[in-house]
């Protein structure tokens, strides 16, 4: 049987902690499937190139049958050349005492350069997933800097938050995490995000009928999910890496696969769905149809509490946009 053409994937920050946890999973077939060859364009800044060489050597040493080529570069034009996916992982991670938004000034301009390079070099069908924080606003910056690439090909990551939220509910209810479904994380990947426990299910039941302690849901669950990244930094002394890489695999795989069951949380361009401000990259429930096109799930009933929380998170995104676009001289 003739083998498929490889999917070419660019990964920025490829020698960083998330990159190290991610590349081997892509190359082994966990992202695109066991019969889909992949080519990896590994992008690093100049000081990371020596470590990148070591990572590439290890990829070679895995003898992955699906890995057709490894490009190592610090040149964005080379790195994004003809790619099908651009995974923008590299950025300065936050340290203890910082919020993700504190990284705006540091990381924002990096995403202007990457957006431009994607615009000029990637396939027109390229899909871009931003992981580097603050990921929603960085994604918006990259999207604005790539005017020839359709806005609906840009994504930022809240799947890590969805996975975190599902585990918290499962542990509270003493059930397997696979019992938890329909849990959308809305808004910004920041402590203001809203994991919507009202619409979540545990087995066939509403999560709120299984976990009847309303105060736990509002006062423990919501802040624990929103602050989980910070708790990891405090515990590990470094920001999440393996779980972030796992969420990248989950996000891309599910964006490439027609949805059979549950929706998933992805930050996408808003067209005003559910009252979200149009033009922002904000997290909503996403399904993928039979021909691979994503759409925002319609008809989710939001409580007043949920609406208030989601509006506050989107207001934070509007504020981040104003700050970042002002600093970078971008227009809305
Ligand atoms: C996370 O949620 O773990 C990452 O976005 C890293 C961070 O700074 O919180």
From TrEMBL:
It catalyses: (S)-malate + NAD(+) = oxaloacetate + NADH + H(+). It holds the Pfam family Ldh_1_N. Transmembrane segments: none annotated. Signal peptide: none annotated. Its EC number is 1.1.1.37. Residues 8-152 form the Lactate/malate dehydrogenase N-terminal domain. One of its GO terms (molecular function) is L-malate dehydrogenase (NAD+) activity. Keywords: NAD, Oxidoreductase, Tricarboxylic acid cycle. The active site is at residue 189. Substrate binds at residues 94, 100, 133, 164. Catalyzes the reversible oxidation of malate to oxaloacetate. NCBIfam families: MalateDH-SF1, PRK05442.1. PANTHER family: MALATE DEHYDROGENASE. Belongs to the LDH/MDH superfamily. MDH type 2 family. This is Malate dehydrogenase. It comes from Thalassobacterium sedimentorum. The lineage of its organism: Bacteria, Pseudomonadati, Verrucomicrobiota, Opitutia, Puniceicoccales. The gene is mdh.
């Amino acid at each position: 049987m003739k083998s498929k053409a490889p999917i070419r994937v660019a990964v920025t920050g490829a020698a960083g902690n998330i990159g190290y946890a991610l590349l081997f999973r892509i190359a082994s077939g966990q992202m695109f499937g066991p019969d889909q060859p992949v080519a990896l364009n590994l992008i690093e800044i100049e000081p990371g190139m020596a470590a990148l060489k070591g990572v590439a050597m290890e990829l070679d040493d895995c003898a992955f049958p699906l890995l057709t080529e490894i490009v190592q570069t610090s040149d964005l034009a080379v790195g994004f050349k003809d790619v099908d996916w651009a995974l923008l992982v590299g950025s300065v991670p936050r340290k203890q005492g910082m919020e993700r938004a504190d990284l705006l000034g540091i990381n924002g301009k990096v995403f202007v350069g990457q957006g431009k390079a994607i615009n000029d070099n990637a396939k027109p069908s390229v899909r871009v997933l931003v992981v580097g924080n603050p990921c929603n606003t960085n994604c918006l910056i990259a999207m604005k800097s790539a005017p020839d690439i359709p806005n609906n090909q840009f994504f930022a990551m809240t799947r890590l938050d969805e996975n975190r939220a599902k585990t918290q509910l499962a542990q509270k209810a003493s059930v397997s995490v696979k019992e938890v479904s329909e849990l959308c994380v809305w808004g910004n990947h920041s402590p203001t995000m809203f994991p919507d426990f009202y619409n979540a299910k545990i087995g066939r039941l509403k999560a709120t009928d299984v976990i009847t302690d309303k105060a736990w849901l509002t006062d423990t669950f919501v802040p624990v999910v929103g602050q989980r990244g910070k708790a990891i930094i405090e515990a590990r002394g470094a920001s999440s890496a393996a779980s972030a890489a796992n969420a990248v695999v989950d996000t891309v795989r599910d964006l490439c696969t027609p949805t059979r069951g549950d929706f998933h949380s992805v930050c996408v361009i808003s067209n005003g769905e559910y009252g979200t401000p149009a033009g922002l990259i904000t997290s909503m429930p996403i399904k993928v149809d039979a021909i691979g096109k994503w759409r925002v799930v319609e008809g989710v009933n939001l409580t007043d509490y949920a609406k208030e929380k989601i509006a506050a998170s989107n207001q934070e995104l509007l504020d981040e946009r104003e700050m970042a676009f002002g600093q970078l001289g971008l227009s809305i």
